[in-house]
Each structure stands twice: as structure tokens, then as C-alpha cells.
């Protein structure tokens, strides 16, 4: 029996953070040492980073709708100084640089916003976002040098002008401003930057700064934010997993990570970092993926991301912030390339164009498996985040002995009073954890001890989940515990309905006290009654596994979906009500419209409760799916092979060069691509005759590749395993006129480049070959459907 004892936590520290200098209280957001509060209610933000200036303005709204549909309620974005003031004294906030328009769109869509204003930002941007002219400006950057502060005062003043009226204090969406980034030893300067920003007119309830690397921050002046990644492109090209990343798959009260950005520090951390007893555990850079550098190219699958995110929740996080949540592209309109590179003094060479980051939403808006898998967690946080936000961390009696302990089960409890959540993580990248057999938990909550499940179970390798302890199903019915993951609660036909998913191949069990009667279909569940209460074991989780519960306060339902259905779950508000939607594709709502982005020729949509009707091209009713009503969306065929013309098959690798302070492998230069294998892919005039993106999906053997349209570089790629995808919508007319030219280089025999073990053979093949194998044109249809209500009075759970 694995045991944990929850002790009553002392009251949180309150009133110690320096407030807004104007003393505003409108749109009140406050912070104590444990929790964020919004208008008197605990608030657990789910934040995703999306760089507006690295994405076409015309697409911002649709991409923000996708972000919202993924369960994100707050959008963070960088402002890169060298984009807004590339020429000294000339500010640009127009077109794709229009931060005001972007933040206004966030507001229109009900999303909170966080502005990361720098002035030093990093974000794999040239000079960390500093303009080139700063080098000769006669000042000492990142200090309180008056000459430098004068430049910042002007820049902050222009940012404040652009963002006027958009603070939550004014009814807008901006809840926080981050000053600087990864500044470790200048607490006084950080305090000065906050003062300058406030004097310029920026007024927000939360001022934040990154705290990893034992950063010295001005006490109670900024809220420390932390991070953690599943991999690290900034490590050397050694063959193994970046060791420091292991820590993020253990439950621990330790928030810091000295590994993030360590290659940009000239010394090991000297301080102890913030006093975290004074601040809630908040994050801004949980790895939504990982960038690809030339010398190190880690592939990050979805479970690496979801397990990390869940482990941070189980470690006490009350602010889940992802970097990146939406991929993007480096700007190509500047006088010099805008990416981090050896040429600009960085340790790493990044692609000239691509900043995809393997993010949940890709460089061209593609919905990745991680997008769908994270959404299930985010639905849980939308539903239970206010409860979780007040619950401190409790670790079990037996913890792992260290980063290399792969035999002790990793678990934790967050609880408050007699209710809480039990977290389990049995996944980590690269080095699979073993199955754990004979597992049963004992959790002491105040004056009661909960034993779960009813008998010993096996927690399989890779499983990671959260189970409830003392959970309000609805209608006053209390669930004592469950061995299944809560997802959401809503009201269906007037009856409260709680939705769970099975976890880890473990039989879903639900324990109720003696006052609750459970009516279950015998083909999906069995019931065991005793004087202590009722235990329901669901034997066939899925769309038909609905239980009816009767308690003293009324009736509720409990729906138990299969584990593989968790990534299909959407919560959509359409036809006047919140509805549960099962769909394998990205689905979002835009006013009264329901929109589906899909590559598939056929996709199913199962609703609970059902809208009265769905109208739109290609949609038709398709009967029932358990307790759901199903429609099928039929679209034109997808993924047609493209014609590939080989213009030159011979290729010569770029010389094996090194650069940067650590002499890591350098990316091929522009002139090296004159000796690449060259291919041409025509784009038919009809290929873009649909409402959505058109992906050119390529499979090749090579080290690095570039794509040109009409002689203009539009995309580039360092090979790391997955197919290369290029979105053609943003250059549609030119692509139809000229086609796409692809240049592929082999890898120099003596180059030192890291990829994961599963991809090693593919990269080794590039030492002797550079070849485009296949090309497909893949339309991502954007189908708009209009639902109509069936039953008035169907409402969401409040």
C-alpha cells in the first residue's frame, strides 16, 4: 500500500506583493502566497505562447480561436524590440507588428493576455530581440545605466501607447506584463524596469519575471515564473537525453530549473532564487515542444508533453504556461536574418525561417497529437481548476531516491480539507519506466483515510493521470474516490452530468457513500453494495457507459469514456448550450458557427446533448453513438501525390563547420545550397480551391533543406525524423505560378549532429544521400457548420 498523509496547511501569506502604483481594483486580480484570485474566485490560468509578429495578421483570429478551443484561457506573446524599432527612432506597430490589434482580438474572443515586453526577450530571436544599433548606442544594456534607461523609457512609452485602454483595469484583457527575460543577477534593474513601465502608462495587476536559474528578483515586486522542458536544443550534441530534463517527470516542491538557458549564462547560479514560500507556483515556459537547432534535433512526442504538464500540476502549479503553444516563422522582412545563430554570437544555429517548435499548433496552424491530448487536461482545469488552485502539495511517504530512480512509483496528492486529487506519472522520455504491479493507494485526508482502488492494480509504463478524492458530481452527490480521470461537468436535459475517462488500462471504479444509489446498465458496469456505500466498476467504458445516480438532493449522471477517447473530447458552446463533442479533428466555435479543420475525407461528430440539426456542406446525420447523437462530415479526397521533377540529383554536403562560443556544428550557409539536389513541385491552380490551409508534405533523406517560391525563401528544415510540412496558403498565388523549388543537402561525414535513437539511421543515411522521396499536397479543409437547438433549457453547469 502506497501512503500519503495530508496535513492542514498554514494560512497563505496575503497583502505582501507591491500593488499597481495607481491602486486600481477594477477587474480585480490578486495573489497570495498560494493562489491567484480573479474577482474573488480562485483562478488557475492555462496560458499558451503565440508570437503575433511571427504569424500573418490575416490569420490571427482563426489561430486564436484554435488556441481557445484547445482549452487555453490566456495568451502570452513577446514583443521583440528589433522588430518594432529596427531603425533607431523609427517605430513600427503596423501590419503583422500591430500588437494593439492582436490584443484586441484576444479580448473579443474572451482570452486574457500577457505581454512579455522585454526589452531583452530571447525567443530564439537575433540578439535576443535587441536592435543591432544598440551596440553603438553608447550604453550598457540590461543595467540601470541612464543612457540605456533613456532608450527603454522611449520604447516602453510607445508600447504603452499601443496598449492604452487594454488593461484588465480598463475592461481589457491584459492581466500581466513580463519585464525582461532570464536576467539572473540584477534585481534592482528589474525593479527599475517595472517602475519605467508603470511611469509610461502600463497598468496591470500582475508584474512577472522569469525565475529559473536561481534568479535574483526584487522581493515582492514581481511574481516569479518558472518553466521546464522535455528536451533541450541548447545542450551539446551528445547522444543521450539532456540530463537536466529528467527532473520534470518527478513530483517535487522544487520549482527551479538551472538548465533552461544555461548556455547563455557565463557562470553557474550563485544565488538561491526567490523565497517561494511567498509566491504561488506559476509557470510560463512548460515545453509545448522543442525547437530544432542544427547541432541538436530532439523529437518530442505528445506523451512527453502531457506527462510533463501533469507532473507540474501534481507538484503544485497554479498557473500552467506553455512555450510554445503555437508555432510560427521567423520574420524575413528585415535587413539581416532575425533568428538566433552563430553569426550573432549565439551557441546555436536555428533555422532561418522555421520556428515550429513541434508545438501543439504548428507553424501553419496544424493540430498536433499534443494539442488534442493536452485539451483533455485543460478541460479538467477549466472544470476543477478553482478547487485545485487552493490545494497544496503533499508528497508520499516513500519518494524516488533521485533522478535515476526508475523503480519507485511517482505520485502525489493535492488536497484541501477532505477533498483533493491524486496524481500519478509513470512516463518519461527516452528511458521508459517499468510497469508497477500490485499498486494501491492510502491517502489520509483530515479525519478519514481513503484506500483506492478497491484492489491492487498495475500502473503500466507510460501511464499518467489524475484521480479525484471527494468530488461533487452534481445534485449534491459526492464521489468519495474514483480510479478514472475527471474531465468536465455539464447539465444535459436538466440533469447534472460528470464526464470521466478511463486511465492507464486500469478498470474505472467509483465509490459512493451510503446515501447514493447507482443504476447501471449491466452490459457496461457492475455494482457492489455494502453498508459502507456503493462501488461501481465500469467494465466497458465508452459512449454507452452512462450511470444514473440518485441521492438525497436529486439525480445526476456519470459518463465514463474509454481512455483512447480522451483526445476526442471537446467542450463546445453552440446552439445556445454547452455540449460535449467527440471528434478526432480540431473543432472550434465562432459565434453560432461550429468549424472543423480536417485533412480527413470523413470525420465523425458525436454530440451530447444533440443540437436539433447541423447544416453545412458535406454534413449528414449518422444515427446514435451510445448516448451521443452522431453526424458524419464528408469532404473531397485529401493528400494527393504531387508531381516531383528532379532538376539536379547530384549534391555536395556543406563543409563540417563549427561556430559559437562552444564550437557546435554550424548550419549550411546560403552558398552551400548552390550545390544541393534540386527538385521542383508544381502546384495545380485548383489545389487551393478550398477554405483552409494547403500543406506540402515532404519525405526526404538529407541533412537540411530549403523551399523557394518564385526565387524567394519561404521555408527551411533541419531533418530530425518527421515529414516536413510547408503551408502554401500564405504564398498561394506565387506557388501556383512558379511551383515550389526544393533544395536538399547531404550531411558532411564528419559533422556531429544529435537526433534521437529512433531517427539515427535516417540521419546517418543523409551522409551519403540527398533525395526527395515523396511529396503530397494535403488540403486542410475548414468546414463551417451551423447547429440549431433541439431542446430549450439545456444549459451548462455553472
Cα distance spanning the termini: 37 Å
Major beta sheet, specifics?
8 strands, parallel, barrel
On the 0 to 100 scale, the average pLDDT is: 95
General form: globular
Rounded to the nearest angstrom, the radius of gyration is 27 Å
Number of helices: 9
How many β-strand runs?
Answer: 50
Strand order of the largest sheet: 5-6-7-8-9-10-11-13
User: Helical residue percent?
Assistant: 10-25%
Contiguous runs where pLDDT drops below 50 for at least 5 residues: 791-798
Strand content: 35-45%
**What structural class results from the helix and strand content?**
mainly beta
Provide a quick synopsis of the model:
With 798 residues, the protein is mostly beta strands.
Written account of the structure:
This protein is 13% helix and 35% strand. Helix 4 crosses helix 5 and helix 6 runs parallel beside helix 7 (369-388). With 798 residues, it is mainly beta. It is built from nine helices and 50 strands. Mean pLDDT is 95; it is low at 791-798. This is Beta-galactosidase. It comes from Streptomyces carpaticus. Pfam families: Glyco_hydro_35.
Amino acid at each position: 500500500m502506497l501512503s500519503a498523509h495530508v496535513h492542514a496547511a498554514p494560512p497563505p501569506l496575503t497583502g505582501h506583493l507591491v500593488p499597481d502604483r495607481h491602486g486600481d481594483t477594477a477587474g480585480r486580480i490578486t495573489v497570495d502566497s498560494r493562489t491567484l484570485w480573479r474577482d474573488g474566485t480562485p483562478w488557475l490560468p492555462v496560458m499558451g505562447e503565440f508570437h503575433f509578429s511571427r504569424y500573418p495578421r490575416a490569420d490571427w483570429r482563426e489561430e486564436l480561436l484554435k488556441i481557445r478551443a484547445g482549452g487555453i484561457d490566456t495568451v502570452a506573446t513577446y514583443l521583440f524590440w528589433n522588430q518594432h524599432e529596427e531603425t533607431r527612432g523609427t517605430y513600427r506597430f503596423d501590419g503583422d507588428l500591430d500588437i494593439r490589434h492582436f490584443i484586441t482580438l484576444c479580448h473579443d474572443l474572451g482570452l486574457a493576455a500577457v505581454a512579455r515586453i522585454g526589452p531583452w526577450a530571447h525567443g530564439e530571436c537575433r540578439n535576443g530581440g535587441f536592435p543591432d544599433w544598440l551596440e553603438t548606442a553608447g550604453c550598457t544594456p540590461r543595467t540601470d545605466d541612464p543612457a540605456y534607461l533613456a532608450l527603454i523609457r522611449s520604447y516602453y512609452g510607445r508600447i504603452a501607447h499601443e496598449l492604452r485602454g487594454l488593461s484588465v483595469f480598463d475592461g481589457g484583457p491584459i492581466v500581466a506584463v513580463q519585464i525582461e527575460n532570464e536576467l539572473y543577477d540584477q534585481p534592482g534593474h528589474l525593479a527599475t524596469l517595472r517602475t519605467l513601465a508603470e511611469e509610461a502608462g502600463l497598468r496591470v495587476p500582475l508584474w512577472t519575471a522569469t525565475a529559473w536559474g536561481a534568479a535574483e528578483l526584487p522581493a515582492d515586486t514581481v511574481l516569479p515564473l518558472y518553466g521546464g522542458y522535455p528536451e533541450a536544443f541548447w545542450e551539446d550534441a551528445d547522444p543521450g537525453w539532456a540530463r537536466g530534463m529528467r527532473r520534470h517527470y518527478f513530483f517535487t516542491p522544487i520549482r527551479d530549473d538551472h538548465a533552461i538557458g544555461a548556455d547563455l549564462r557565463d557562470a553557474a547560479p550563485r544565488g538561491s532564487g526567490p523565497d517561494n514560500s511567498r509566491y504561488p507556483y506559476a509557470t510560463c515556459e512548460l515545453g509545448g515542444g522543442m525547437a530544432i537547432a542544427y547541432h541538436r534535433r530532439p523529437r518530442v512526442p505528445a506523451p512527453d508533453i502531457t506527462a510533463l504538464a501533469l507532473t507540474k500540476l501534481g507538484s503544485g502549479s497554479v498557473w500552467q504556461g506553455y512555450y510554445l503553444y503555437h508555432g510560427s516563422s521567423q520574420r524575413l522582412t528585415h535587413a539581416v536574418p532575425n533568428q538566433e545563430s552563430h553569426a550573432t554570437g549565439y551557441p546555436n544555429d536555428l533555422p532561418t525561417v522555421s520556428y515550429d517548435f513541434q508545438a501543439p499548433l504548428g507553424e501553419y496552424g496544424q493540430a498536433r497529437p499534443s494539442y488534442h491530448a493536452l485539451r483533455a487536461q485543460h478541460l479538467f482545469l477549466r472544470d476543477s481548476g478553482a478547487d485545485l488552485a487552493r490545494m497544496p502539495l503533499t508528497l508520499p511517504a516513500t519518494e524516488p531516491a533521485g533522478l535515476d530512480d526508475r523503480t519507485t512509483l511517482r505520485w502525489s496528492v493535492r488536497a484541501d480539507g477532505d477533498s483533493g486529487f491524486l496524481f500519478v506519472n509513470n512516463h518519461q522520455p527516452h528511458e521508459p519506466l517499468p510497469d508497477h504491479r500490485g499498486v494501491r493507494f492510502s491517502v489520509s485526508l483530515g479525519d478519514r483515510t481513503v484506500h483506492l482502488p478497491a484492489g491492487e492494480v498495475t500502473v503500466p509504463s507510460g501511464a499518467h493521470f489524475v484521480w479525484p478524492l471527494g468530488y461533487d458530481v452534481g445534485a449534491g452527490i459526492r464521489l468519495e474516490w474514483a480510479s478514472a480521470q475527471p474531465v468536465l461537468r455539464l447539465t444535459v436535459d436538466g440533469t447534472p452530468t460528470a464526464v470521466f475517462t478511463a486511465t492507464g488500462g486500469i478498470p474505472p471504479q467509483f465509490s459512493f457513500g451510503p446515501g447514493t444509489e447507482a443504476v447501471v446498465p449491466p452490459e457496461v458496469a457492475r455494482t457492489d453494495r455494502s453498508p459502507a456505500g456503493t462501488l461501481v466498476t465500469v467494465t466497458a467504458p465508452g459512449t454507452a457507459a452512462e450511470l444514473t445516480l440518485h441521492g438525497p438532493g436529486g439525480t445526476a449522471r456519470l459518463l465514463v469514456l474509454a481512455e483512447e477517447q480522451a483526445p476526442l473530447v471537446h467542450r463546445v458552446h453552440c446552439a445556445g448550450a454547452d455540449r460535449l463533442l467527440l471528434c478526432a479533428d480540431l473543432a472550434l466555435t465562432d459565434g453560432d458557427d461550429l468549424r472543423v479543420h480536417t485533412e480527413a475525407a470523413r470525420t465523425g461528430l458525436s454530440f451530447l446533448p444533440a443540437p436539433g440539426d447541423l447544416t453545412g456542406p458535406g454534413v449528414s446525420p449518422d444515427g446514435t453513438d451510445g448516448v451521443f447523437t452522431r453526424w458524419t462530415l464528408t469532404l473531397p479526397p485529401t493528400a494527393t501525390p504531387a508531381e516531383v521533377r528532379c532538376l539536379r540529383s547530384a549534391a555536395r554536403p556543406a563543409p563540417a563547420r563549427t561556430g559559437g562560443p562552444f564550437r557546435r556544428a554550424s548550419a549550411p550557409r546560403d552558398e552551400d545550397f548552390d550545390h544541393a539536389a534540386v527538385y521542383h513541385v508544381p502546384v495545380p491552380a485548383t489545389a487551393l480551391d478550398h477554405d483552409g490551409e494547403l500543406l506540402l508534405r515532404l519525405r526526404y533523406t538529407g541533412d537540411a533543406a530549403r523551399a523557394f517560391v518564385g526565387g524567394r525563401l519561404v521555408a527551411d528544415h533541419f531533418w530530425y525524423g518527421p515529414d516536413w510540412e510547408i503551408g502554401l496558403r500564405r504564398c498561394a498565388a506565387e506557388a501556383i505560378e512558379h511551383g515550389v523549388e526544393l533544395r536538399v543537402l547531404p550531411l558532411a561525414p564528419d559533422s556531429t549532429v544529435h537526433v534521437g535513437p529512433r531517427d539515427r539511421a535516417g540521419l546517418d543515411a543523409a551522409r551519403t544521400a540527398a533525395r526527395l522521396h515523396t511529396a503530397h499536397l494535403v488540403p486542410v479543409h475548414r468546414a463551417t457548420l451551423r447547429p440549431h437547438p433541439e431542446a430549450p433549457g439545456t444549459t451548462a453547469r455553472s
